[in-house]
Automatic annotation (TrEMBL):
Keywords: Cell membrane, Membrane, Transmembrane, Transmembrane helix. Belongs to the CPA3 antiporters (TC 2.A.63) subunit D family. This is Monovalent cation/H+ antiporter subunit D family protein. Residues 131-425 form the NADH:quinone oxidoreductase/Mrp antiporter transmembrane domain. Its main location: membrane. PANTHER family: NA(+)_H(+) ANTIPORTER SUBUNIT D1, NADH DEHYDROGENASE. Signal peptide: none annotated.
Length: 502
Protein backbone atom coordinates (compact mmCIF):
# COMPACT_ATOMS: atom_id res chain seq x y z
CA UNK A 1 0.00 0.00 0.00
CA UNK A 2 1.42 3.38 -1.04
CA UNK A 3 1.47 5.97 1.75
CA UNK A 4 -0.37 9.27 1.09
CA UNK A 5 2.93 11.14 1.44
CA UNK A 6 4.48 9.06 -1.36
CA UNK A 7 1.30 9.19 -3.44
CA UNK A 8 1.70 12.96 -3.82
CA UNK A 9 4.98 12.95 -5.82
CA UNK A 10 3.68 9.93 -7.74
CA UNK A 11 0.72 12.01 -8.97
CA UNK A 12 3.28 14.32 -10.59
CA UNK A 13 5.58 11.60 -11.91
CA UNK A 14 2.97 9.20 -13.28
CA UNK A 15 1.61 11.47 -16.05
CA UNK A 16 5.18 12.19 -17.17
CA UNK A 17 5.78 8.43 -17.47
CA UNK A 18 2.49 8.20 -19.33
CA UNK A 19 3.68 10.93 -21.69
CA UNK A 20 6.78 8.89 -22.55
CA UNK A 21 4.67 5.77 -23.18
CA UNK A 22 2.34 7.75 -25.45
CA UNK A 23 5.36 8.93 -27.44
CA UNK A 24 6.79 5.43 -27.74
CA UNK A 25 3.44 4.06 -28.93
CA UNK A 26 2.99 6.74 -31.59
CA UNK A 27 2.48 4.22 -34.42
CA UNK A 28 0.06 2.05 -32.43
CA UNK A 29 -3.01 4.21 -31.73
CA UNK A 30 -4.93 1.61 -29.72
CA UNK A 31 -2.00 1.00 -27.37
CA UNK A 32 -1.23 4.72 -27.23
CA UNK A 33 -4.72 5.53 -26.08
CA UNK A 34 -4.76 2.55 -23.71
CA UNK A 35 -1.64 4.04 -22.09
CA UNK A 36 -3.50 7.35 -21.70
CA UNK A 37 -6.49 5.69 -20.05
CA UNK A 38 -4.43 3.46 -17.75
CA UNK A 39 -2.35 6.45 -16.67
CA UNK A 40 -5.53 8.39 -15.98
CA UNK A 41 -7.07 5.56 -13.99
CA UNK A 42 -4.03 5.03 -11.78
CA UNK A 43 -3.64 8.78 -11.28
CA UNK A 44 -7.23 9.02 -10.07
CA UNK A 45 -6.65 6.20 -7.57
CA UNK A 46 -3.58 8.00 -6.21
CA UNK A 47 -5.50 11.27 -5.89
CA UNK A 48 -8.36 9.49 -4.11
CA UNK A 49 -5.93 7.90 -1.63
CA UNK A 50 -4.61 11.36 -0.72
CA UNK A 51 -8.17 12.72 -0.55
CA UNK A 52 -9.22 10.01 1.89
CA UNK A 53 -6.18 10.62 4.09
CA UNK A 54 -6.99 14.33 4.24
CA UNK A 55 -10.59 13.47 5.09
CA UNK A 56 -9.29 11.50 8.08
CA UNK A 57 -7.45 14.57 9.34
CA UNK A 58 -4.00 13.83 7.94
CA UNK A 59 -1.90 16.43 6.11
CA UNK A 60 0.53 14.30 4.07
CA UNK A 61 3.45 16.09 2.50
CA UNK A 62 6.64 15.56 0.52
CA UNK A 63 9.67 17.80 0.01
CA UNK A 64 11.78 17.32 -3.10
CA UNK A 65 14.65 19.67 -2.25
CA UNK A 66 15.38 23.20 -1.05
CA UNK A 67 16.50 25.56 -3.78
CA UNK A 68 17.73 28.20 -1.34
CA UNK A 69 17.13 28.74 2.33
CA UNK A 70 13.40 29.07 2.92
CA UNK A 71 12.38 28.20 -0.67
CA UNK A 72 11.85 24.44 -1.03
CA UNK A 73 9.98 22.66 -3.79
CA UNK A 74 7.55 20.97 -1.45
CA UNK A 75 4.04 19.56 -1.43
CA UNK A 76 1.35 19.15 1.18
CA UNK A 77 -2.24 18.05 0.88
CA UNK A 78 -5.03 20.01 2.54
CA UNK A 79 -8.79 19.93 1.82
CA UNK A 80 -8.92 22.44 -1.03
CA UNK A 81 -5.92 20.95 -2.84
CA UNK A 82 -7.06 17.36 -2.31
CA UNK A 83 -10.48 18.20 -3.75
CA UNK A 84 -8.92 19.95 -6.76
CA UNK A 85 -6.61 16.98 -7.38
CA UNK A 86 -9.52 14.51 -7.46
CA UNK A 87 -11.54 16.78 -9.74
CA UNK A 88 -8.64 17.33 -12.13
CA UNK A 89 -7.54 13.68 -12.28
CA UNK A 90 -11.10 12.33 -12.49
CA UNK A 91 -12.19 14.68 -15.24
CA UNK A 92 -8.92 14.15 -17.12
CA UNK A 93 -9.83 10.46 -17.33
CA UNK A 94 -13.33 11.34 -18.55
CA UNK A 95 -11.91 13.86 -21.01
CA UNK A 96 -9.42 11.27 -22.31
CA UNK A 97 -12.29 8.90 -23.15
CA UNK A 98 -14.08 11.76 -24.87
CA UNK A 99 -10.91 12.82 -26.71
CA UNK A 100 -10.56 9.39 -28.30
CA UNK A 101 -14.05 9.65 -29.77
CA UNK A 102 -13.58 13.28 -30.83
CA UNK A 103 -10.10 12.96 -32.33
CA UNK A 104 -10.94 9.80 -34.25
CA UNK A 105 -14.38 11.02 -35.27
CA UNK A 106 -12.87 14.22 -36.66
CA UNK A 107 -9.75 12.55 -38.11
CA UNK A 108 -7.61 15.08 -36.27
CA UNK A 109 -3.87 15.28 -36.97
CA UNK A 110 -0.99 15.13 -34.48
CA UNK A 111 -2.91 13.00 -32.01
CA UNK A 112 0.22 11.73 -30.25
CA UNK A 113 1.40 15.27 -29.51
CA UNK A 114 -2.12 16.05 -28.32
CA UNK A 115 -2.17 13.25 -25.73
CA UNK A 116 1.42 13.95 -24.65
CA UNK A 117 0.65 17.60 -23.95
CA UNK A 118 -2.41 16.61 -21.96
CA UNK A 119 -0.30 14.30 -19.80
CA UNK A 120 2.29 16.96 -18.98
CA UNK A 121 -0.45 19.49 -18.25
CA UNK A 122 -2.21 17.22 -15.75
CA UNK A 123 1.12 16.62 -14.01
CA UNK A 124 1.48 20.40 -13.64
CA UNK A 125 -2.10 20.64 -12.35
CA UNK A 126 -1.23 18.09 -9.65
CA UNK A 127 1.76 20.24 -8.70
CA UNK A 128 -0.49 23.27 -8.35
CA UNK A 129 -3.01 21.29 -6.29
CA UNK A 130 -0.48 19.98 -3.77
CA UNK A 131 1.93 22.96 -3.65
CA UNK A 132 2.99 23.63 -0.06
CA UNK A 133 4.21 27.16 -0.77
CA UNK A 134 3.98 30.01 -3.25
CA UNK A 135 7.35 29.16 -4.80
CA UNK A 136 6.25 25.65 -5.75
CA UNK A 137 2.86 26.93 -6.89
CA UNK A 138 4.48 29.44 -9.24
CA UNK A 139 6.75 26.84 -10.86
CA UNK A 140 3.92 24.44 -11.69
CA UNK A 141 1.61 27.31 -12.65
CA UNK A 142 4.11 28.24 -15.37
CA UNK A 143 4.59 24.63 -16.48
CA UNK A 144 0.83 24.39 -16.88
CA UNK A 145 0.84 27.45 -19.14
CA UNK A 146 3.66 26.15 -21.34
CA UNK A 147 2.32 22.60 -21.59
CA UNK A 148 -1.14 23.73 -22.70
CA UNK A 149 0.20 26.10 -25.39
CA UNK A 150 0.60 23.24 -27.94
CA UNK A 151 -2.99 22.22 -27.20
CA UNK A 152 -4.34 25.70 -27.89
CA UNK A 153 -2.38 25.91 -31.18
CA UNK A 154 -3.11 22.29 -32.13
CA UNK A 155 -4.82 23.06 -35.45
CA UNK A 156 -1.79 25.00 -36.68
CA UNK A 157 -3.71 27.52 -38.80
CA UNK A 158 -3.55 31.32 -38.59
CA UNK A 159 -6.39 31.51 -36.06
CA UNK A 160 -4.73 28.92 -33.86
CA UNK A 161 -1.40 30.73 -33.95
CA UNK A 162 -3.04 34.05 -33.16
CA UNK A 163 -5.05 32.53 -30.31
CA UNK A 164 -1.90 30.86 -29.01
CA UNK A 165 0.04 34.11 -29.00
CA UNK A 166 -2.67 35.86 -27.00
CA UNK A 167 -2.96 32.87 -24.66
CA UNK A 168 0.75 32.71 -23.95
CA UNK A 169 1.26 36.46 -23.95
CA UNK A 170 -1.45 37.30 -21.42
CA UNK A 171 -0.71 34.42 -19.06
CA UNK A 172 3.06 34.88 -19.07
CA UNK A 173 2.86 38.67 -18.83
CA UNK A 174 0.53 38.58 -15.83
CA UNK A 175 2.42 35.84 -14.00
CA UNK A 176 5.90 37.31 -14.52
CA UNK A 177 4.89 40.95 -14.31
CA UNK A 178 2.47 40.74 -11.36
CA UNK A 179 2.38 37.34 -9.64
CA UNK A 180 6.14 36.89 -9.31
CA UNK A 181 6.69 40.36 -7.77
CA UNK A 182 3.86 39.62 -5.32
CA UNK A 183 5.58 36.40 -4.23
CA UNK A 184 8.94 38.14 -3.87
CA UNK A 185 7.31 40.94 -1.88
CA UNK A 186 5.61 38.41 0.39
CA UNK A 187 8.90 36.62 1.01
CA UNK A 188 10.66 39.92 1.74
CA UNK A 189 8.10 40.80 4.40
CA UNK A 190 7.59 37.41 6.05
CA UNK A 191 10.73 35.43 5.23
CA UNK A 192 8.60 32.55 3.96
CA UNK A 193 6.20 31.55 1.19
CA UNK A 194 4.67 28.63 3.09
CA UNK A 195 0.89 28.24 3.13
CA UNK A 196 -0.39 28.33 6.71
CA UNK A 197 -3.81 27.96 8.32
CA UNK A 198 -5.11 31.45 9.10
CA UNK A 199 -2.60 33.09 6.75
CA UNK A 200 1.02 34.08 7.22
CA UNK A 201 0.23 37.81 7.30
CA UNK A 202 -1.46 37.47 10.68
CA UNK A 203 1.96 37.82 12.35
CA UNK A 204 2.99 40.79 10.17
CA UNK A 205 -0.08 43.01 10.37
CA UNK A 206 1.80 46.28 10.83
CA UNK A 207 4.00 45.66 7.81
CA UNK A 208 1.32 44.30 5.48
CA UNK A 209 -1.81 46.29 6.37
CA UNK A 210 -0.73 49.55 4.64
CA UNK A 211 0.01 47.78 1.37
CA UNK A 212 -2.53 44.93 1.60
CA UNK A 213 -4.70 46.24 -1.23
CA UNK A 214 -1.77 46.63 -3.62
CA UNK A 215 -0.38 43.21 -2.76
CA UNK A 216 -3.76 41.55 -3.13
CA UNK A 217 -4.22 43.24 -6.50
CA UNK A 218 -0.90 41.86 -7.71
CA UNK A 219 -2.04 38.35 -6.79
CA UNK A 220 -5.59 38.66 -8.15
CA UNK A 221 -4.57 40.01 -11.56
CA UNK A 222 -1.22 38.20 -11.60
CA UNK A 223 -3.09 34.92 -11.57
CA UNK A 224 -4.31 35.47 -15.12
CA UNK A 225 -5.72 31.96 -15.32
CA UNK A 226 -8.56 33.10 -13.03
CA UNK A 227 -9.73 35.11 -16.10
CA UNK A 228 -10.90 38.06 -14.03
CA UNK A 229 -11.62 41.05 -16.25
CA UNK A 230 -9.62 42.70 -17.77
CA UNK A 231 -7.09 39.82 -17.68
CA UNK A 232 -9.51 37.51 -19.51
CA UNK A 233 -8.86 37.86 -23.30
CA UNK A 234 -6.72 34.72 -23.44
CA UNK A 235 -9.74 32.56 -22.61
CA UNK A 236 -12.13 33.33 -25.51
CA UNK A 237 -9.13 33.42 -27.88
CA UNK A 238 -8.11 29.93 -26.73
CA UNK A 239 -11.39 28.58 -28.14
CA UNK A 240 -9.60 27.98 -31.45
CA UNK A 241 -8.43 24.72 -29.87
CA UNK A 242 -10.23 21.40 -30.38
CA UNK A 243 -13.22 20.94 -28.07
CA UNK A 244 -11.51 18.43 -25.71
CA UNK A 245 -8.90 21.11 -25.10
CA UNK A 246 -11.61 23.68 -24.41
CA UNK A 247 -13.19 21.30 -21.89
CA UNK A 248 -9.78 20.76 -20.30
CA UNK A 249 -9.06 24.50 -20.11
CA UNK A 250 -12.45 25.34 -18.60
CA UNK A 251 -13.27 22.38 -16.39
CA UNK A 252 -10.17 20.39 -15.54
CA UNK A 253 -6.99 22.40 -15.22
CA UNK A 254 -6.23 25.90 -16.43
CA UNK A 255 -9.01 28.21 -15.22
CA UNK A 256 -9.58 25.93 -12.24
CA UNK A 257 -5.90 26.21 -11.36
CA UNK A 258 -6.32 29.97 -11.53
CA UNK A 259 -9.30 30.37 -9.22
CA UNK A 260 -7.97 27.60 -6.97
CA UNK A 261 -4.76 29.60 -6.57
CA UNK A 262 -6.66 32.81 -5.78
CA UNK A 263 -8.73 31.05 -3.13
CA UNK A 264 -5.73 29.28 -1.62
CA UNK A 265 -3.70 32.49 -1.40
CA UNK A 266 -6.60 34.34 0.24
CA UNK A 267 -7.09 31.59 2.84
CA UNK A 268 -3.49 30.55 3.53
CA UNK A 269 -1.46 33.71 2.81
CA UNK A 270 -3.73 36.65 3.67
CA UNK A 271 -6.27 34.92 5.89
CA UNK A 272 -9.95 35.90 5.69
CA UNK A 273 -9.87 37.57 9.13
CA UNK A 274 -7.01 39.84 8.00
CA UNK A 275 -8.87 40.80 4.81
CA UNK A 276 -12.10 41.40 6.70
CA UNK A 277 -10.33 43.66 9.21
CA UNK A 278 -8.45 45.70 6.59
CA UNK A 279 -11.18 45.81 3.94
CA UNK A 280 -8.48 45.30 1.31
CA UNK A 281 -10.57 42.81 -0.67
CA UNK A 282 -13.66 45.00 -1.16
CA UNK A 283 -12.52 46.69 -4.43
CA UNK A 284 -11.71 43.30 -5.93
CA UNK A 285 -15.06 41.95 -4.76
CA UNK A 286 -16.67 44.53 -7.01
CA UNK A 287 -14.28 43.76 -9.88
CA UNK A 288 -15.44 40.13 -9.62
CA UNK A 289 -19.10 41.20 -9.47
CA UNK A 290 -18.71 43.38 -12.57
CA UNK A 291 -16.92 40.51 -14.36
CA UNK A 292 -19.84 38.21 -13.56
CA UNK A 293 -22.42 40.53 -15.09
CA UNK A 294 -20.39 41.92 -17.99
CA UNK A 295 -19.20 38.51 -19.19
CA UNK A 296 -22.79 37.23 -19.03
CA UNK A 297 -23.97 40.18 -21.11
CA UNK A 298 -21.30 39.47 -23.72
CA UNK A 299 -22.18 35.75 -23.75
CA UNK A 300 -25.79 36.56 -24.61
CA UNK A 301 -24.69 38.10 -27.92
CA UNK A 302 -22.40 35.28 -29.06
CA UNK A 303 -23.81 33.00 -31.76
CA UNK A 304 -20.80 30.68 -31.77
CA UNK A 305 -21.50 28.05 -29.11
CA UNK A 306 -17.94 27.74 -27.82
CA UNK A 307 -17.56 31.52 -27.65
CA UNK A 308 -20.75 31.77 -25.61
CA UNK A 309 -19.51 29.06 -23.25
CA UNK A 310 -16.13 30.79 -22.98
CA UNK A 311 -17.64 34.04 -21.73
CA UNK A 312 -19.91 32.01 -19.48
CA UNK A 313 -16.74 30.59 -17.91
CA UNK A 314 -15.34 34.09 -17.34
CA UNK A 315 -18.56 34.88 -15.48
CA UNK A 316 -18.88 31.64 -13.55
CA UNK A 317 -15.24 31.46 -12.42
CA UNK A 318 -15.53 35.01 -11.10
CA UNK A 319 -17.89 33.49 -8.52
CA UNK A 320 -14.87 31.81 -6.93
CA UNK A 321 -12.93 35.08 -6.81
CA UNK A 322 -16.03 36.81 -5.47
CA UNK A 323 -16.32 34.22 -2.69
CA UNK A 324 -12.69 34.74 -1.74
CA UNK A 325 -13.04 38.54 -1.74
CA UNK A 326 -16.10 38.45 0.50
CA UNK A 327 -13.64 37.37 3.22
CA UNK A 328 -16.25 35.35 5.09
CA UNK A 329 -16.43 31.65 5.91
CA UNK A 330 -19.49 31.06 3.74
CA UNK A 331 -17.99 33.07 0.91
CA UNK A 332 -14.92 30.83 0.91
CA UNK A 333 -17.15 27.75 1.09
CA UNK A 334 -19.16 29.04 -1.86
CA UNK A 335 -16.00 29.59 -3.89
CA UNK A 336 -14.62 26.16 -3.03
CA UNK A 337 -17.82 24.28 -3.90
CA UNK A 338 -18.15 26.31 -7.11
CA UNK A 339 -14.86 24.78 -8.28
CA UNK A 340 -16.40 21.30 -8.08
CA UNK A 341 -19.88 22.14 -9.35
CA UNK A 342 -18.69 24.28 -12.26
CA UNK A 343 -16.22 21.58 -13.33
CA UNK A 344 -19.01 19.05 -13.86
CA UNK A 345 -21.46 21.48 -15.43
CA UNK A 346 -19.11 23.29 -17.79
CA UNK A 347 -17.32 20.14 -18.93
CA UNK A 348 -20.71 18.71 -19.83
CA UNK A 349 -21.54 21.74 -21.96
CA UNK A 350 -18.24 21.77 -23.82
CA UNK A 351 -18.33 18.04 -24.53
CA UNK A 352 -21.86 18.45 -25.87
CA UNK A 353 -20.61 21.25 -28.15
CA UNK A 354 -17.93 18.90 -29.44
CA UNK A 355 -20.42 16.09 -29.99
CA UNK A 356 -22.60 18.44 -32.06
CA UNK A 357 -19.61 19.40 -34.19
CA UNK A 358 -18.44 15.81 -34.71
CA UNK A 359 -21.89 14.55 -35.72
CA UNK A 360 -23.25 17.54 -37.65
CA UNK A 361 -20.40 20.05 -38.13
CA UNK A 362 -22.45 22.82 -36.56
CA UNK A 363 -20.86 25.52 -34.40
CA UNK A 364 -23.42 28.35 -34.52
CA UNK A 365 -26.34 28.34 -32.11
CA UNK A 366 -28.61 29.76 -34.81
CA UNK A 367 -27.99 26.59 -36.86
CA UNK A 368 -29.07 24.24 -34.04
CA UNK A 369 -32.82 24.75 -34.22
CA UNK A 370 -34.51 21.37 -34.24
CA UNK A 371 -31.22 19.54 -33.74
CA UNK A 372 -32.31 18.20 -30.35
CA UNK A 373 -34.80 15.93 -32.08
CA UNK A 374 -31.99 13.98 -33.70
CA UNK A 375 -29.51 14.39 -30.83
CA UNK A 376 -31.71 13.94 -27.74
CA UNK A 377 -28.98 12.45 -25.57
CA UNK A 378 -26.53 15.24 -26.33
CA UNK A 379 -29.02 18.05 -25.79
CA UNK A 380 -30.48 16.28 -22.75
CA UNK A 381 -27.02 16.29 -21.18
CA UNK A 382 -26.60 19.93 -22.25
CA UNK A 383 -29.86 20.82 -20.50
CA UNK A 384 -28.70 19.25 -17.22
CA UNK A 385 -25.30 20.95 -17.47
CA UNK A 386 -26.97 24.30 -18.14
CA UNK A 387 -29.31 23.83 -15.19
CA UNK A 388 -26.32 23.24 -12.93
CA UNK A 389 -24.46 26.30 -14.22
CA UNK A 390 -27.59 28.41 -13.69
CA UNK A 391 -27.83 27.11 -10.12
CA UNK A 392 -31.23 25.42 -10.20
CA UNK A 393 -32.04 22.44 -7.93
CA UNK A 394 -31.59 19.53 -8.02
CA UNK A 395 -28.24 20.21 -9.72
CA UNK A 396 -24.91 20.78 -7.95
CA UNK A 397 -24.51 24.40 -9.04
CA UNK A 398 -27.31 25.52 -6.71
CA UNK A 399 -25.21 25.02 -3.56
CA UNK A 400 -22.34 27.42 -4.38
CA UNK A 401 -24.79 30.25 -5.07
CA UNK A 402 -26.57 29.50 -1.80
CA UNK A 403 -23.29 29.64 0.13
CA UNK A 404 -22.20 32.80 -1.71
CA UNK A 405 -25.46 34.53 -0.80
CA UNK A 406 -24.94 33.55 2.84
CA UNK A 407 -21.37 34.86 2.62
CA UNK A 408 -22.59 38.16 1.13
CA UNK A 409 -25.17 38.50 3.91
CA UNK A 410 -22.50 37.78 6.54
CA UNK A 411 -20.33 40.52 5.02
CA UNK A 412 -23.23 42.96 4.91
CA UNK A 413 -22.94 43.14 1.10
CA UNK A 414 -26.60 42.82 0.16
CA UNK A 415 -25.96 44.25 -3.31
CA UNK A 416 -23.86 41.17 -4.08
CA UNK A 417 -26.94 39.01 -3.52
CA UNK A 418 -28.66 41.06 -6.22
CA UNK A 419 -25.66 40.50 -8.52
CA UNK A 420 -25.95 36.74 -8.04
CA UNK A 421 -29.70 36.79 -8.76
CA UNK A 422 -29.27 38.89 -11.89
CA UNK A 423 -26.46 36.60 -13.02
CA UNK A 424 -28.73 33.56 -12.67
CA UNK A 425 -31.41 35.25 -14.77
CA UNK A 426 -28.85 36.04 -17.48
CA UNK A 427 -27.64 32.42 -17.32
CA UNK A 428 -31.18 31.24 -18.01
CA UNK A 429 -31.42 33.48 -21.06
CA UNK A 430 -28.13 32.54 -22.74
CA UNK A 431 -27.94 28.86 -21.76
CA UNK A 432 -31.45 27.42 -21.61
CA UNK A 433 -32.37 29.07 -24.92
CA UNK A 434 -30.02 26.60 -26.63
CA UNK A 435 -31.74 23.30 -25.71
CA UNK A 436 -35.16 24.98 -25.96
CA UNK A 437 -34.65 25.94 -29.61
CA UNK A 438 -32.97 22.58 -30.29
CA UNK A 439 -35.99 20.64 -29.03
CA UNK A 440 -38.92 22.92 -29.78
CA UNK A 441 -38.07 25.00 -32.84
CA UNK A 442 -38.08 23.93 -36.47
CA UNK A 443 -34.99 24.49 -38.64
CA UNK A 444 -35.05 27.85 -40.39
CA UNK A 445 -36.32 27.84 -43.95
CA UNK A 446 -33.45 26.96 -46.25
CA UNK A 447 -31.48 25.17 -43.55
CA UNK A 448 -30.55 21.56 -44.19
CA UNK A 449 -32.55 19.16 -42.09
CA UNK A 450 -30.51 17.91 -39.14
CA UNK A 451 -30.91 14.30 -40.27
CA UNK A 452 -29.16 15.14 -43.48
CA UNK A 453 -26.09 16.71 -41.89
CA UNK A 454 -22.76 15.12 -42.47
CA UNK A 455 -20.16 14.09 -39.94
CA UNK A 456 -19.20 11.07 -37.92
CA UNK A 457 -21.67 9.41 -35.62
CA UNK A 458 -24.15 6.68 -34.90
CA UNK A 459 -27.45 6.46 -36.79
CA UNK A 460 -30.47 5.12 -34.87
CA UNK A 461 -33.40 5.48 -37.23
CA UNK A 462 -34.17 9.21 -37.36
CA UNK A 463 -31.56 9.92 -34.67
CA UNK A 464 -27.98 10.76 -35.42
CA UNK A 465 -25.76 11.14 -32.38
CA UNK A 466 -21.99 11.49 -32.17
CA UNK A 467 -19.86 8.36 -31.60
CA UNK A 468 -20.54 6.65 -28.28
CA UNK A 469 -17.23 7.88 -26.82
CA UNK A 470 -18.48 11.44 -27.42
CA UNK A 471 -21.90 10.76 -25.87
CA UNK A 472 -21.09 8.74 -22.75
CA UNK A 473 -18.73 11.29 -21.10
CA UNK A 474 -21.17 14.25 -21.08
CA UNK A 475 -23.95 11.96 -19.87
CA UNK A 476 -21.61 10.85 -17.08
CA UNK A 477 -20.67 14.37 -16.00
CA UNK A 478 -24.28 15.57 -16.23
CA UNK A 479 -25.28 12.70 -13.96
CA UNK A 480 -22.41 13.67 -11.67
CA UNK A 481 -23.84 17.19 -11.37
CA UNK A 482 -27.16 15.66 -10.34
CA UNK A 483 -25.59 13.27 -7.82
CA UNK A 484 -23.39 15.96 -6.26
CA UNK A 485 -26.49 17.96 -5.35
CA UNK A 486 -27.62 15.16 -3.03
CA UNK A 487 -24.12 14.50 -1.66
CA UNK A 488 -23.12 18.11 -1.02
CA UNK A 489 -23.02 17.56 2.76
CA UNK A 490 -19.99 15.19 2.70
CA UNK A 491 -18.11 17.70 0.51
CA UNK A 492 -19.11 20.54 2.85
CA UNK A 493 -17.82 18.63 5.88
CA UNK A 494 -14.62 17.72 4.04
CA UNK A 495 -13.97 21.42 3.30
CA UNK A 496 -14.81 22.65 6.82
CA UNK A 497 -11.13 22.86 7.92
CA UNK A 498 -10.67 25.41 5.16
CA UNK A 499 -12.80 27.87 7.14
CA UNK A 500 -11.65 26.82 10.59
CA UNK A 501 -14.30 24.14 11.21
CA UNK A 502 -13.78 20.61 12.42
Amino acid sequence: MISPGLAIPLTLALPVVGCLLIWLLDKQPNLREAATLITGGVLLLLAISVFMAVGEGQRPGYELFEVIDGLPIAFQAEPLGAMFAVIASGLWLVNSVYSIGYMRGGNEKHQTRFYMSFAVAISAAMGVAFAANLFTLFIFYEVLTLSTFPLVTHKGDDNARRGGRIYLGVLMATSIGLLLPAIVWTYAITGTTEFAVGGIFAEHVDAVAPIAGVLLGLYVFGIGKAALMPAHPWLPNAMVAPTPVSAFLHAVAVVKAGVFSVLKIVVYIFGIDFLADTGASIPFMWVAAISILLASAIAMHKDNLKARLAYSTVSQLSYVTLGAMLATSMGVMGGATQIAAHALGKMTLFMCAGAIYVAHHKTLISEMRGLGRVMPFTFGAFFLGAMSIIGLPPLAGSWPKFFLMLGAADAGQMAIIAVLIISSILNVIYLLSIPVQAFYMNPAEGDAKPQGAGGAGIQWGALKEAPILCIAPPLFTATGALVLFFFADPLYKFLLPLIGGQ
